[in-house]
Amino acid sequence: MIFANIYRGKRVFVTGHTGFKGSWLCQWLLDLGAEVAGYSIDLPSNPSHFEALGLGSLLKKHTLGDIRDLAKLQAAMQAFQPEFVFHLAAQPLVRLSYDDPKGTFDTNVGGTINVMEAIRATPSVRSAVMIATDKCYENFEWEFGYRENDRLGGKDPYSASKACAEIAFISYFKSFFHLAPHLKIASARAGNVIGGGDWAADRIVPDLTRAWSRGESAVVRSPKSTRPWQHVLEPLSGYLWLGAKLVSEPAPQSAVNGESFNFGPGHDANQSVERLIGEMQKTWTSGRFHVDSAGIGTKKEAGLLQLNCDKAYGRLKWEPTLSFEQSVQMTASWYRAYAENSGAKLMTSAQIREYEQLAREKRVAWSE
Q1: Of 301, 263, 245, whose CA–CA distance to 133 is shortest?
Q2: Domains, in order of start, for the chain
Q3: Which of 28, 125, 145, 218 could serve as 211's disulfide partner, Cβ 3.0–4.6 Å?
Q4: Per-residue pLDDT tens digits for 265-291
């Protein structure tokens, strides 16, 4: 049974539900039989994966609101009375954080605190997963992966804000949530996510597909930079399995309550931007690119960052399902189908089913 069939008929509240990962999560939850409500500030891009899926009419409640507005957020959560909360709402871009550092901190730190305050005021919540990022670690560009107990920090405003949000999560758990008999909560860290339906600015895959769908050469800033690329369904499977484990493991013996977990790809996924482009070109055979590093300026991004996921495997029996090539092929196929006017909803649900089947074949714990 997928995720032990725990989400069927359950009420799930998702912040940031109109975003790239949020819309994939909502679709997967709906496919699992959950009742889903979402809270997000806007549609973050045009086109929009959320709109392409028609999620506005499929959710039990679709609320446009700012997570910096505690009163509105709390009212929306209390009106829905969710059993599960997934907090994905954020200002997610490193380069934008240089242009709006205060807004980034207000959203990523203050917004996270507001979500936890709303959870505190909503006794129906049994399980909450706070979504962080791999960039919350102080990055020394080590060749080995960061563990959950490594130092938090960040040189750019985005990374620093997400590190602060993780510190806030730890504080709230130790000060309040560890005493709550009905609620268990954890945080999840992942990054370098690719997949169909991401149209955000300053991300390599959307930049490539935007240019290639117009027959243009894509601009690439740092082709030699290395990232552990993973398909969006990989971390989402971790979030959903973590949420399920939070309610299934009894307290105080729970090995997941109050903990943070890394969700990353296999070691083969740690590849250069140039290699990613090469794999994308196997589907987009006419795709071209050129390098223009002049746009980097003072808006520095990490050259190397990867996670150690031993804790997720040891305590959750979670492991990645896809190879690097499979992740890129699924991503490129989704965008190519969209460019050819194939149905985004059909493609998204088909890739969810394909991913579930591959996980079963690999005998991944959450799929059995």
Answers
A1: 263
A2: 2-294+302-367 (3.40.50.720)
A3: 218
A4: 988 888 999 999 999 999 988 889 999
